[in-house]
Amino acid sequence: MTAKTKERKVQPGVIGHPTTQYVTTKEVMELLGVKDSKAGDIIKSLRKELVDKDMITSTYPAGKVPRQYFYKRCMIEL
């Protein structure tokens, strides 16, 4: 028996309950209402900032940034 998965639709700018410590490009697309390539650019630049400030190492998972830092830099209040 297979369970159907229900895809969650989120309006841009509407914040649900986070389930992980980091955000991915898909979440950036949903939260900011941007396309995939722009979301990837945002993640890449935030990740570079963090590596330059020695807040994360370059071995941190690619395509992800810490959720708190993302919210802070994008001025999203919880």
Question: Care to describe what's here?
Answer:
The protein is mainly α and 78 residues long. The chain has helices at residues 25-32, 36-52, 67-73; strands spanning 22-24, 64-66. Strands 1-2 form a two-stranded antiparallel sheet. Helix 1 packs across helix 2. The longest helix has 17 residues, at 36-52. The chain starts with 21 loop residues before the first strand and ends in a 5-residue tail after the last helix. The model has no long low-confidence stretch (mean pLDDT 83).
Question: In brief, what are we looking at here?
Answer:
This protein is mostly helical and 78 residues long. Helices cover 41% and strands 8% of the residues.
Secondary-structure topology with pairs:
Blueprint: E1 22-24, H1 25-32, H2 36-52, E2 64-66, H3 67-73
What are the secondary-structure elements, in order, as H or E? EHHEH
Structural class: mainly alpha
Global morphology:
globular
Radius of gyration equals: 14 Å
Task: Record keyword descriptors for this entry.
mainly alpha, 2 strands, about 80 residues, globular, 3 helices, two-stranded antiparallel sheet, single chain
